[in-house]
Each structure stands twice: as structure tokens, then as C-alpha cells.
Write a structure and sequence with these properties.
753 residues, alpha/beta, five-stranded parallel sheet, 36 helices, 10 strands, 63% helix
Length: 753
């Protein structure tokens, strides 16, 4: 097919000019071109790229293949490769990670954002993403991350997508990503534009009547007339039908080569098609197709269909049995010639259905594990979902294997922040594992441990999940002493899951036992155990002992996990404060702020505002404390972090107390809903309101029990002294004597001495 002239798109070009003008002034823009297949989306993107370059910009492309075949992060791998220079290498999205979790991916996404920001400061960027409706899910997550990060960068995102061809989950993701975008739905060309495009080549009225203004259909009609030496336009009702007619005129050899190529996707290699056909080389099989303009040679032995509709039209003619056979041949050919394309191989084996169900399960799991290591969690989850479907064909009764795949899929869901779906899948997998025969007890025990740990990957501040705790205890009992690493991880996660507890001593003992076991483990496993276990010790363990643990975590995290390093530095700030070490606190804050700003992620930089608020509160600079707390709250809302609202409420309650200002009823009421300490907090708030009866009623809920938690114990001590009950006051004083000379830090955002 020849390059088509661009006509009838004045409105869209004007929108681009306006958006590009804003980009040059430092305002990110997002244009979305939509419309039916063949309407000219790619052609318009090409024109936008040309104009951006002509006006001093740098235009880079990210092209999709099709659902199931686009490698993870493929469009952005292309974009980054086009922007990389010897002096400025791009982040490696295709590399494998030693630690593959949500934190590692967030850091990698942040590196991509920082790279694009630096390049846009040198030259305005036009990033063109074609056929986004068939993007891999992980690329959509990266795009969703980048858009707010580059809000004030000189970057234009121009994306093209079909209106109705996206799968439901892709369509939902696109809807979230493209909120606030300038949408440019491309309409069919009007008769005047068709006449301008056709010129003297044919009767433009007849062309318009047949094509209904679809530019691709127009060019295919004209190409069909030239190729067949016709005098009349063919009477066909769609561009797909026209393409099928043109293919039917080819020799059988060319038709067979096209059938093999179309299942490989829009881009393919000639030697892979030759292997599928049982030939040593492709020979001249595709030359007639190239002559028709349906194929483009993009490099030695590399081909691309001129339009996705070409491959789709050919594939539509294949019956299900023939399509399955071709997918099986494609998988075998790729295993020989492109064994690293694990996702594509798995896709073809899965598409082969009954012909290769067992091989498909193995290939899909292998590809999913590679995707997990590449931080492409959504792609991994989709592969594992299909692997489970294939397992139903291969081994319907394979319960142990099914539960293992479900566990791996749950891990992918957790890292993709789909926590509710992951928890439900873990519960189903645990139930399946419990029903395994006694002869599989050892394997079942280790699998149950992995399932429990997968369910516990979500860490929620101040929240105790009884179902998770029960599952972790069950897994510990079943595992016994079988696997040291699993046992240490289960102990650490159970300890963290149980806090905050009414009596934190038992979780603390578990955490310390896990740390002791971890001393026998490799460094990566030891880091996992100690980091999770320390979450059960913060604000409970003696701060000097806790600091030694935190410094060991910091040393283990160096070069392995920058997220754990940043979080541990944050914990060290409060540890120094609890020890009443103000110089140590200031030094820890400075170290954390440096690391947070080096990471450049709002998840961590917002915590600098929290520390600023705390420092100002300590120094009596109350207005500055309020301003910093408000900035922390704004940053947290932008991230969608609901748990931060509780921390802000606690800060405001503590602020009102320290500054002797009236309590705000809203934050007070919400802080008092903190379940593990509700009675103690309510009693303390009653003190602030000088309401003895309310304080007495709240303390009655506690009876003679004084919370071991230092924050809550201090609150109870204040309240018992306030209501004037000497016996209760003495009991409360004894409970907090061990904390004498230390600062009580409430929820890491407010403080009192």
C-alpha cells in the first residue's frame, strides 16, 4: 500500500499545534486519537511526529503488536531505546530483578520518569504510542504512573486506539489512564475530502459510496483496481472483504505463507514462517504479497503487515482447527529460532488448545516467572490465569499443581495492587491445599506456607487481619521444622500481622525468634525476614536494641532494595527521637531526606513533609507544623493513600494538645475509632475536653488492664491522674515506668514528652 496523503484532518492538526505550543512552555499534553480500523490514526500520528521534529522536538515511537504477543513493556522499551545516549543510558525495563515486588517496580517506574524528565529538559518530546488498545497490561500501568509524574514536563503523549476492540480489562485501564486527555475521535472523510484524496484515479463519488469515507478502504479499492487491471471498482462492502479477495488471487504458496505469518502477529521473521511451513527458507513465498503492498520489509528477514487489518482479514478465513495447528507450529518454530520470546511461545501453545495443553501450562508458568522478574506483574497474572485454564484440559485432577499456580498468580496480583482479588485467590488455594492426600503432606505444608506469605504481602498500617493471622499460624503448625527460610518468614509476617496487639509481647517474641533464625539464611532471605520482623518491634522494643536491628537491615538493603533502605532510614528518625537524641534525630532526618529526594518518588518525598511537621511541633513553630502537615496530606491524597488520613488526624489531635488549642471534633472522632486503642484514646481526648465523666467511662472499658503500647499507656496514665483515682494512677505509672526519660511518639506524626 502506498503512503496516503493526509486530507480532512484540519481540526486534529490544529489541536496538535495548540498542545505542542503548551508543551514547549513546560506543560505536558495528552492527545488521544480514536476511531474505527483504517480511519487514519497511524497516518495522523506520523504527521504529528513530522511536525514535532520540524519545530525542534524529538519524536519517538512505541508500537504494539497484538494482545498476547506484545512483550512486556515493549512500547516503552522502544521509546527509551530511541532516547538513550552514551552519556544518558535509559533504565532497563527488560532486565531481570533480584527483588521483584511492588516496591522494586515503583522505583524502576520512577527511574523512567526521571529519565524522560531529564531528556525533556534538553528537548521537547513527542511520545507516540500506536494501537494502545492491544498494549500489554504492564505498559498501561507504566503509562498511568508517568502521566502525573510528567505533568510539568515538556512532553506530548499522542496515543492511537480503536474505539471498541480492547478487551474489557484493557478498556477499563485505558479509561482510567485517559481521564482528562484531549480526545480526537476521527470521523470518516466527507465527499470533498475523498475527492481530494482520489484525484483523477477513479470516480470519487463511487469510491465514497463504497468506502463510506474510510481512508484505508479508499486506498485498497484503488490498489485493487491497479493490481487487477480493472476498469471498474469492485462491489465489496468492507476493507476486510476486499483484502480477502486480493489474497485469494495469490498462488497457493503465497497464501500458505500468509496464513502462517498472520498467527505470528503484525511483525514476524521470515525464518520462523519458513520453519512453520517445513522449508529451509521462505524463498519467494511472500514476494507477491509485498508487491501488493500488504507487507513491508523492515529489516533483513523482518516483516511487518502494512496494517493490522491485513493480518486480521487473513486470520478470519482460518477455521478453528487450522488456526490451532498453525499456533502449535508457531510455538515450535519460535522455540528453535527465538527461545527467549517466552511469552510469545506460551501464547501460541495456549492458543493451540487440546493439541498442546500440558506444554502450554509449563510454558505459561515459565513465561509468567520471567514477567514477574521483569516487574511485569499484570502480564504474569494474565499468563497464569490462562495456565490454570490449560491445566483443566491437561490434568483436571492436579490439585497440588493448581494450588501452586494459584499461589503464584496471587503473588502477581498482590504486586499489581489488586489485594482483594489476591486474598480471595489465596483463600481458595489454601482450601484446595488442605484437601490434598496424606501422601502429599510435606509438599502441601510448604505450599500452604507460600500461600500464607502471598496473602500477607499486603502490609496495612494499624490493621490486623484475623483471617491472615489464622492462616499464618496454621501454616507454621503444618510446616514444623521442615524449611528454615519459610519458617523464619512465617514467624516474621505473623508477628507483623498481629501488631498492634493489646499485649504486644507475644508478637515481639515471634519477631525476635524470626530474626534469630534469619542469621542462618542467605543475605536476601535475611533481609526479607528482618525487615518484616522489625515492623512488629517499632515502638515496642528498647530503642537501642531496635536501632541495632535497623542498622543491620540498612546494611543488607544496600545495593538490593532502595525502598527498604528508605523506609528503614525513616524508622531510624523516630527511633532517635524516642531515645531523646535530638542531634541524632536531625542527622537521621537529613539522611532520610537525601535518600528520598534521590529516589524522586512521592511515596517517600512526602514523608519529608511529615518530618518537617514533627520538627516544627517539637520546636513550638505551630503554624509551620500545620503547613507541613497539610502538604503531607495533599501529597498522600494525590497518591491515593487512604491510610495517611489517619496519620494526619493523629497529628492534628497531638498538635491541638501541644499547642493548647481547641480540639477539632472531626480528627478527634476519627482518631478514637482506632480499634486497638479506642478506649485509651477516648479517655485521653476526654482529658483534653476536661470531661471527667467521659474519661471515667472510657477507662471503665479497660478495667485494670493498662496497654503495654507506650503511646496508649501514656494516654491512660494521663486520664487516670485526671479523674483523681490514686490506685489506678499508681498502676498506670508502674506500667510506663520502663519508658521513663523517653519520648512517646504517637503514630509517627505527633509527639509529646
Amino acid at each position: 500500500m502506498e503512503a496516503r496523503a493526509l486530507v480532512g484532518r484540519d481540526r486534529e492538526l490544529a489541536a496538535f499545534e495548540a498542545a505542542w505550543s503548551g508543551v514547549q512552555r513546560g506543560q505536558r499534553a495528552l492527545l488521544v486519537l480514536s476511531g474505527e480500523p483504517g480511519i487514519g490514526k497511524t497516518r495522523l500520528l506520523e504527521t504529528l511526529a513530522t511536525r514535532a521534529v520540524a519545530q525542534g522536538g524529538h519524536a519517538v515511537w512505541g508500537r504494539m503488536w497484538e494482545v498476547g504477543l506484545t512483550p512486556a513493556f515493549w512500547p516503552f522499551i522502544q521509546v527509551l531505546a530511541a532516547l538513550a545516549t552514551p552519556d544518558q543510558p535509559a533504565p532497563a525495563l527488560a532486565s531481570l530483578e533480584e527483588r521483584a515486588d511492588a516496591g522494586a517496580r515503583l522505583l524502576r517506574f520512577g527511574e523512567v520518569a526521571q529519565f524522560l524528565l531529564r531528556r525533556s529538559q534538553q528537548q521537547p518530546l513527542a511520545i507516540l504510542l500506536d494501537d494502545l488498545h492491544v498494549a500489554d497490561p504492564s505498559s498501561l500501568q507504566l503509562l498511568m504512573f508517568l502521566l502525573p509524574q510528567l505533568l510539568h514536563a515538556r512532553v506530548l503523549f499522542a496515543v492511537a486506539a480503536r474505539d471498541t476492540d480492547a478487551r474489557p480489562e484493557i478498556a477499563a485501564a485505558l479509561g482510567r489512564i485517559l481521564r482528562g486527555a484531549e480526545r480526537l475521535p476521527l470521523a470518516p472523510l466527507d465527499p470533498g475530502s475523498v475527492a481530494q484524496l482520489v484525484g483523477e484515479r477513479a470516480d470519487s463519488g463511487r469510491v465514497y459510496a463504497l468506502s463510506e469515507g474510510n481512508p484505508l478502504f479508499i486506498e485498497e479499492l484503488l490498489a485493487s483496481v491497479r493490481a487487477a487491471g480493472r476498469l471498474q471498482l469492485p462491489r465489496l462492502s468492507s476493507v476486510r472483504a476486499l483484502m480477502r479477495e486480493r489474497v485469494s488471487s495469490l498462488a497457493p504458496e503465497a497464501q500458505g505463507a500468509l496464513a502462517a505469518a498472520c498467527v505470528l502477529g503484525r511483525e514476524f521473521r521470515g525464518q520462523v514462517v519458513a520453519h512453520m511451513l517445513g522449508a529451509d527458507a521462505l524463498g519467494s513465498g511472500l514476494e507477491p504479497v509485498r508487491a501488493l503492498g500488504m507487507l513491508i520489509m523492515t529489516g533483513p528477514d523482518h516483516y511487518r503487515f502494512s496494517h493490522a487489518l491485513v493480518a486480521e482479514a487473513i486470520a478470519d478465513e482460518l477455521d478453528a482447527a487450522e488456526r490451532a495447528r498453525l499456533h502449535l507450529r508457531a510455538a515450535h518454530a519460535l522455540e528453535r529460532h527465538a527461545g527467549e520470546d517466552t511469552s510469545a511461545i506460551a501464547h501460541h501453545l495456549l492458543a493451540a488448545g487440546h493439541l498442546a495443553a500440558e506444554a502450554a501450562v509449563v510454558a505459561a508458568e515459565r513465561a509468567a516467572r520471567k514477567c514477574l522478574a521483569q516487574l511485569a506483574f499484570e502480564d504474569a497474572e494474565a499468563l497464569l490465569e490462562r495456565a490454570l485454564q490449560a491445566l483443566s484440559l491437561a490434568e483436571p485432577q492436579a490439585s497440588l499443581r493448581r494450588a501452586g499456580l494459584m499461589c503464584l498468580r496471587a503473588e502477581a496480583l498482590q504486586h499489581a495492587s489488586r489485594h482483594a482479588a489476591a486474598a480471595a485467590l489465596c483463600d481458595d488455594a489454601a482450601q484446595l491445599t488442605r484437601a490434598l492426600a496424606s501422601g502429599q503432606a510435606a509438599e502441601a505444608a510448604e505450599l500452604l506456607a507460600r500461600i500464607a506469605l502471598a496473602r500477607g504481602l499486603e502490609m496495612r498500617f494499624g490493621h490486623t487481619d484475623p483471617i491472615l493471622c489464622a492462616l499464618l499460624r496454621e501454616a507454621l503448625d503444618e510446616l514444623g521444622e521442615r524449611n528454615l527460610a519459610l519458617r523464619a518468614k512465617l514467624l516474621a509476617r505473623l508477628a507483623a500481622a498481629e501488631q498492634p496487639a493489646s499485649d504486644p509481647r507475644e508478637p515481639m517474641a515471634r519477631a525476635l525468634a524470626a530474626i534469630e533464625l534469619a542469621a542462618q539464611l542467605p543475605a536476601a532471605d535475611r533481609l526479607d525476614v528482618m525487615y518484616v520482623a522489625s515492623a512488629a518491634l517499632v515502638e515496642y522494643l528498647d530503642p537501642h536494641a531496635l536501632e541495632r536491628i535497623q542498622h543491620e537491615v540498612l546494611a543488607l538493603a544496600r545495593g538490593r532494595d532502595r525502598g527498604i533502605s528508605a523506609h528503614t532510614r525513616l524508622r531510624l528518625c523516630f527511633n532517635a527521637l524516642e531515645r531523646v537524641d535530638r542531634p541524632g534525630f536531625d542527622a537521621a532526618v537529613e539522611a532520610f531526606a537525601a535518600e528520598a529526594h534521590a529516589l524522586g518518588l512521592p511515596r517517600w518525598t512526602r514523608q519529608v513533609h511529615m518530618l518537617t511537621a514533627l520538627t516544627a511541633l517539637l520546636e513550638g513553630r505551630f503554624d509551620a507544623a500545620q503547613l507541613a502537615a497539610a502538604e503531607y496530606e495533599r501529597s498522600s491524597q494525590a497518591l491515593g493513600d487512604a491510610s495517611a488520613a489517619f496519620l494526619v488526624d493523629v497529628h492534628r489531635v497531638m498538635f491541638a494538645w501541644v499547642s493548647t488549642r481547641p480540639q477539632d471534633a472531626g480528627p478527634s472522632a476519627r482518631a478514637a475509632q482506632y480499634a486497638p486503642g479506642r478506649a485509651a484514646i477516648s479517655a485521653w481526648l476526654a482529658v483534653q475536653d476536661t470531661d471527667r465523666e467521659r474519661a471515667r467511662g472510657a477507662l471503665a472499658e479497660l478495667g485494670e488492664r493498662i496497654p503495654i503500647d507506650p503511646d496508649l499507656g501514656a494516654m491512660v496514665a494521663c486520664a487516670t491522674a485526671f479523674i483523681g483515682e490514686p490506685v489506678a494512677a499508681q498502676r498506670a505509672l508502674r506500667a510506663i515506668e520502663a519508658k521513663s526519660g523517653r519520648i512517646v511518639v504517637a503514630a509517627m506524626v505527633g509527639c509529646s514528652v
